[in-house]
């Protein structure tokens, strides 16, 4: 039985969505002794057939790990993944170069199979007697008058559940959000990007990884890119991001192979020519969408949208799952501050969290340009060098954007604001044309001016400090 | 029988929505000999009971009138409305001041009852043998494979219609748009404003209008405002626009009357104290929303969204209906250019029209600030004076934004771009502190520099000309 810290036997919550965020959030409530009905549209994933080589990978980082640690699941989940310590860039001539994610040993991201992670979280939820999981239950409606949530079970019958509040963790096509938008004035936007994606598999060869294991492999090509994340079965989940109009020009085997030969020559043999052709012509390019909505709480304070239901983002900062998990951490801070009064805590959560998740939705779009475009430019390397160099010298004063987002719990909106401040400082460096001389000057400035100054009490009081949580 | 100009007996179109735009558009198709199925969710409005004093008014201007003229309905509809030649501003001391809409006699807007307009358009549609109207038919689905549109009739049965294409003119909650968003990647945003609205009636007194007839009356109060439009029954449809949080502070009769006494003293006696109280406490403040989506055409080119289904706007430029009507004019330009090939014309329409309707959605939001806030400032008067003065002097070179939007058919996006150019020029004027001296200088500049220069062939060739269509 899992560890319950307190007891609220009179409170019951409905969590809609038994995916990653919903299963995690159910455990959070149960840990505090709150009764949970967890509803999932699909059958139990743990009883489904595994399709070999068709995994989807998640990249777990600080925010997600902290949330897993809250329910004592961090270690088991990290053990089921593969750490990635750097990006491995593949150029047109098949040369590779590593660009580390951070400067410290703990600056690693965990590549983990979505299905394994979901199964582990459902196993964890099953340990709490407070949680009842209802698979194949489709959300139908919420009645705010008598607080009854209605679901359609697999026999097609409507079943009512009386609960204190409703959490919509039901993904980017959220049925809870759709219901809330019918009764409340919800600002909403969805934006598709020109790039679509298609997944391939790089299988192991002679029982071994065919590329270096502990890396996120990237083939950046300006308007498009290929990425590959390692799995524990020694395969790589490989994703092609390509504008739809280019996808549509590749109509024959020859066109496809010529395209890969030109832009991703080494990837052809990794994926295998036959599998590449088979997968490409039997799959449909899938769209990528950014979704924002506001507010995340209903007018009555009885419904809260979390995770992808509240904020879907393009996958280029790998913060979709991490931000969805962090939502639970932020909510439970608010619940504790408000003595577990749901509606007050929901309004409090909405007030601050909304700006942070809007920031990460925007940052994810920004990182798409960085991953596909900027990594091919010299200025990108220099920016990373300057960032890391300043971070080493004045770690409480200068944290690179990627590090803040991925390896700290600094609120996303603050990450964005700090980056804008850093950009002002870096204009100095840009004036010298990203040169070694400029880097040298900045380094000297940091060592002899900023660092000693930073130690004076006056400056310490005036300027904000942004230490990482770990 | 209405006048049909040509014949396309093999073509059939489904128009969803028998409101203003849908009824008009059906006539456009029929005029070109195309068969039309026109579907409306509600029963025939012409058989419904008239609720006295509960009218909603539309403000018809150039774009709308040109569309009505296309189906020979302009005159009959204008005769059923009341022309408004100026804004009549009411200040806190009950003083009034008129600010004309334009400089020419034809610069008037027609105030017309929504219901009367809809009835006239349905009557017109009934004259064409090409049009079949289906009331109480709810759009269910569109099958692009066999081009079958399915509707649920009032008995609850599904009925199929085989057509060449589907037009969604079904308003801001469009069912056609919702269906298209399920299959296609449609960018979409909806944004509510803090202001909500509530409608009152200023009845006639002794059989006469209680205020000057040919004006749009405005009580601008920065964060909120009251407006009143004349009706042929000598009443005024009166609308209060107020932030929701202020609505919520008015919970008692005393609070309501004190609020009106302070901000709209003359309006209390116009509406009548008892009616004011009765209406206020029996009505719910209604929200205002801006909606944009992109594209307006389906991937297959077989569905087109028009009017509010494609672009809903806050009502502050009175261009919601006018832009919805102009959509039909633009579509038929494209249809004629493409020899009535629906999909090609739809794609063509989407390419240009989308930017124009996004511009008017934005301009409507901008005009909210102008109507409620700017009209109370001296700079607003001066801007209008300068605008009109320059317009008189160099009418081909300087058309005020309001005039362009309301009294010409200059594409909305171009209106916005021209205004931005004008703003640059007006910085000159602003530098002199909006003074009479500044106005004098600008006038002289126009008379002795711009006007003669404008007549030289070189300048005429270099600079674009923006003459109004009428």
UniProtKB/TrEMBL annotation, chains A, B:
<dbReference type="InterPro" id="IPR002938">
    <property type="entry name" value="FAD-bd"/>
</dbReference>
<dbReference type="InterPro" id="IPR027545">
    <property type="entry name" value="Kynurenine_monooxygenase"/>
</dbReference>
<dbReference type="GO" id="GO:0043420">
    <property type="term" value="P:anthranilate metabolic process"/>
</dbReference>
<feature type="domain" description="FAD-binding">
    <location>
        <begin position="13"/>
        <end position="336"/>
    </location>
</feature>
<comment type="pathway">
    <text>Cofactor biosynthesis; NAD(+) biosynthesis; quinolinate from L-kynurenine: step 1/3.</text>
</comment>
<keyword id="KW-0521">NADP</keyword>
<dbReference type="GO" id="GO:0071949">
    <property type="term" value="F:FAD binding"/>
</dbReference>
<dbReference type="GO" id="GO:0004502">
    <property type="term" value="F:kynurenine 3-monooxygenase activity"/>
</dbReference>
<dbReference type="Pfam" id="PF01494">
    <property type="entry name" value="FAD_binding_3"/>
</dbReference>
<keyword id="KW-0560">Oxidoreductase</keyword>
<keyword id="KW-0662">Pyridine nucleotide biosynthesis</keyword>
<dbReference type="GO" id="GO:0034354">
    <property type="term" value="P:'de novo' NAD+ biosynthetic process from L-tryptophan"/>
</dbReference>
<dbReference type="GO" id="GO:0006569">
    <property type="term" value="P:L-tryptophan catabolic process"/>
</dbReference>
<keyword id="KW-0496">Mitochondrion</keyword>
<dbReference type="GO" id="GO:0005741">
    <property type="term" value="C:mitochondrial outer membrane"/>
</dbReference>
<dbReference type="InterPro" id="IPR036188">
    <property type="entry name" value="FAD/NAD-bd_sf"/>
</dbReference>
<dbReference type="GO" id="GO:0019805">
    <property type="term" value="P:quinolinate biosynthetic process"/>
</dbReference>
<dbReference type="GO" id="GO:0070189">
    <property type="term" value="P:kynurenine metabolic process"/>
</dbReference>
<keyword id="KW-0503">Monooxygenase</keyword>
<comment type="similarity">
    <text>Belongs to the aromatic-ring hydroxylase family. KMO subfamily.</text>
</comment>
<keyword id="KW-0285">Flavoprotein</keyword>
<protein>
    <recommendedName>
        <fullName>Kynurenine 3-monooxygenase</fullName>
        <ecNumber>1.14.13.9</ecNumber>
    </recommendedName>
</protein>
<keyword id="KW-0274">FAD</keyword>
<comment type="function">
    <text>Catalyzes the hydroxylation of L-kynurenine (L-Kyn) to form 3-hydroxy-L-kynurenine (L-3OHKyn). Required for synthesis of quinolinic acid.</text>
</comment>
